[in-house]
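tool_call: predict_structure(chain=1)
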Amino acid sequence: MVITASGVGGATMMDRDQAAEAVRAVCDHFGIEDDSTDEYDGMGPYQILVSTVISQQISEASTRRICSELFSEFPGIEDVYHADPVRFEEAIRASRYHHQKACCILSATRTIVEDFGGEVPDDLESLRRLPGVGDKTAACVLRYGFGKRAVIVDSHINRVSNRLGISGSKRPADTQKAIAEAVPEEMWGLLDKGFIALGRTFCRPRDPLCEECPAKGLCEHHARSIRGHSTDAR
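tool_result:
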């Protein structure tokens, strides 16, 4: 089953061969050979959902630490469902925006228990109905919780996809759709790992290291920069 996102304005700019070449170039540089991850080791769909919400705007290391402590006190959905909201919020206080995240998790938990019989839904439309669950969280749950193909878009993947020319929109939903159209399904997980690594090193939000980037020969942003320098030199 293929999971994609709906959206407008995300028309593919690269063709499939170019997009695949870009993903391979990035993954080869970082030595990424498969899409396995230990980020969600031992977690079921519900814990993956909670962990992904908590991970927003904080580092992976912080997420691991906070979730380890949280799940030791509230290991399952029923534990969270019956939790004291003040105590639950206190348990994730080390996370940025802990109040908003606690409200989202508690609301999503109530919906899962009361509307879905206590089972995390395994389809995109139902996951999006859960309070606080956006496209990234839904995609993470589908892929790592249920083993379904899904395109995940975080800030790094969105930025890299736009600069390379895979997506023509900065809206994550549009980028998600563009990736699904341009990149072969079997490379979606590789793209996640590769583009996140690239976004943290060369393709930074500010002062990207374009000349050192392993994908510079395929990058629309780099090509525009070269054209701009050529124009300035005239």
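agent: The two ends are 53 Å apart (CA to CA). Proceeding to next step.
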